[in-house]
Amino acid sequence: xxxxxxxxxxxxxxxxxxxxxxxxxxxxxxxxxxxxxxxxxxxxxxxxxxxxxxxxxxxxxxxxxxxxxxxxxxxxxxxxxxxxxxxxxxxxxxxxxxxxxxxxxxxxxxxxxxxxxxxxxxxxxxxxxxxxxxxxxxxxxxxxxxxxxxxxxxxxxxxxxxxxxxxxxxxxxxxxxxxxxxxxxxxxxxxxxxxxxxxxxxxxxxxxxxxxxxxxxxxxxxxxxxxxxxxxxxxxxxxxxxxxxxxxxxxxxxxxxxxxxxxxxxxxxxxxxxxxxxxxxxxxxxxxxxxxxxxx
Length: 296
Description:
Blueprint: H1 9-13, H2 15-20, H3 24-27, H4 30-33, H5 41-48, E1 62-69, E2 75-83, E3 86-93, E4 96-103, E5 108-113, E6 118-123, E7 147-156, E8 159-167, E9 176-181, E10 186-191, E11 197-208, E12 211-221, E13 228-235, E14 240-245, E15 251-259, E16 274-275
Parallel strand pairs: 6-16
Antiparallel strand pairs: 1-2, 1-15, 2-3, 3-4, 4-5, 5-6, 7-8, 8-9, 9-10, 10-11, 11-12, 12-13, 13-14, 14-15
């Protein structure tokens, strides 16, 4: 299960290949990942803005509103609560409230339906590195279904990064090269098949809502098309992207951030709620889009 919406060039070309495809077993087993269709655009933002980082021993707990603004001006919101390896997401799906609790260290996910006071549980494989400062590469070199090759180091924006090749073994047309920033857990450059190039370049330190953030410029170059630009604002204390202005027009942000301890009960189903069986995985001819339990 990944809370990503890989529809824009930045996320599709970076996270989908460098993390979601590369480490599915470590993060969430296949039985967990198909529930990503439960998520609204606001909450696809939430996990992508709260992925773990490797260069800080402790990351403060916090809560924030996740806001997604589409190019046409429409807006959707959610709520994210993060403490160590645990995360709670609150959002609306088809007009109904949904709560998702993710406990990565245990490989565990709960999906709660407040309308029926019920929930289901999905068990994946535990991630022993969740919430730790351990370095993680952008892909799994032990996965035979994935080309994952370290090529060396390169300096960009004053940062020593790692150069990797990612793609499908035996198919050069599906191989990308990335510059991986292990501290920020972010691709700073990707050269994709077909010639598309995405880069992130550091601009300056800035203040957003009282928080000191790094301002990075996103540039996407597609052969035969005008260059597109955007912006990425990274909070080095919380190790999250506080705001993204994507080249295609969408804007995503964490707002009203409150830093401080989180009640552990936020990561448990409420007492008295009914546990139900999870929806069946999509089968042949199915839509492949699971939905929250019916309110009827």
